[in-house]
Amino acid sequence: MKEMKTIGVLTSGGDAPGMNAAIRAVVRAGVNSGMHVLGIHNGYTGLMKLDMKEMDMREVSDTLHRGGTILGSARCLEFKKPEVVKSTAEQAKENGIDGLVVIGGDGSFRGARDLSLAGLPTIGLPGTIDNDIDCTDYTIGYDTALNTVSDCIDKIRDTTLSHNRCTFVEVMGKDAGYIALSAGIAGGAEAILIPEQKFDIQKDLVQMIMDCRARGKYHYIIVIAEGIGNTQEIADKTEELLRTEHDIELETKVCILGHIQRGGRPTVKDRITASQMGVHAVDLLKQGIGNRVVVKRDGKITDLDILEGLNMKKTIDADMLRLADILSL
Ligand code: ADP
What we know:
Blueprint: E1 6-11, H1 19-32, E2 36-40, H2 43-49, E3 52-55, H3 82-94, E4 99-104, H4 106-117, E5 122-126, H5 142-162, E6 166-171, H6 178-186, E7 191-193, H7 201-214, E8 220-225, H8 231-246, E9 252-256, H9 268-286, E10 292-297, E11 300-305, H10 306-310, H11 318-328
Parallel strand pairs: 1-2, 1-4, 4-5, 5-10, 6-8, 6-9, 7-8
Antiparallel strand pairs: 2-3, 10-11
Helix pairs in contact: 1-9, 3-4, 5-6, 6-11, 7-8
C-alpha cells in the first residue's frame, strides 16, 4: 500500500450548506494525520487546471458556520469524457496528489469512480440539499434547506391566512420530493405534491379544498416539488375549476422559493454529519482505500463501493406519506 502524503479536496455540482464543514473536517483530519491537504477550486474544472492551494488548519478557521463552499463549485461537462478523466488522474498523480475527496451529488460520484478506476483513489461525500442520493439516508445540506423552507412556509402562512387564499409553494428537489414532503409536513401543508406520487388535480386539490371548506377552513398551503411541472399552471387550473364547477372564487398565489433554499448557515445536524463524513473519508484514504462513497445508513456513518452506491434505489418513506395524509386534513 502506498502511503498517502498529499490529498486533495473539492466540491462539485450544486452547492449545499455544510460543505464547508466537510472541507474543514477533511483538512483538519488530514493535517492531524501528517498529510498535506490541497483545496482544489471550482470542482473538476479546478482539478483539470491544477487550480489549487495547500490548506492548513487556519485556512478553514471560521468557515464552519458559513453556507456555500469556500472552494467554489462548478459543473464541468468536459469531465464526462473518459479520456479527460484519465489524463486528469494521471496529471494529478504526477503533481503529487495521492488521493482525493469529492463532495457533491450523483454526477460528482460518477467522476469520482472514474478517477479511482484511472488510478487516483477517490472518496465521495454526499453533498446536496435535495437528499436525492439513493445509497445514503442523508445528504449534507438537506436539514438546512428543510429549515429554510419551513421558515418560509410559516411566513407565507401568515399572509395566506389573512387573505383566505391558497398559496402554492414550489420547493427544490430536482426529480425527487424529499424536501417537499418533509418541509410540507413540518409546515402543516394542506397538500403536498411530489414526483414520486401521481396526483389528480380534481381529487388532490379541488376536492381537498371543498372538504376543507366544509369543515370551516378557508386558507390553504400547497407544497409542490419542482419536479412536478409548471406550478403556475396547476394553480390557475385549480382556481378555474373551483370557479367553473363549484362557483367558488378562491384567490391563488404562487411562491417559488428558488435559490434561497441553497444558502444560509448550516444547521447543527448538517455541521455534525459533514464533520463525521469528512473524518471518515480521510480515515479511508489513510488506509489507501479509494472508490468508496461515505454514507449514513440506519443512523451510522459507513462507506460503500461507489458503483454499488450508484446502482441503489431509495424509495420515498411510506410512513412519511401516511403522516402527510393524516395530518393535512
Ligand atoms: P451533482 O454532483 O450534484 O449530481 P452534476 O450532475 O452537475 O451534479 O455533476 C457534477 C459534475 O460531476 C459534472 O459537472 C461533471 O464534471 C461530473 N460528472 C457528472 N456526470 C459524470 C459522469 N457520468 N462521468 C464523469 N463525471 C461526471
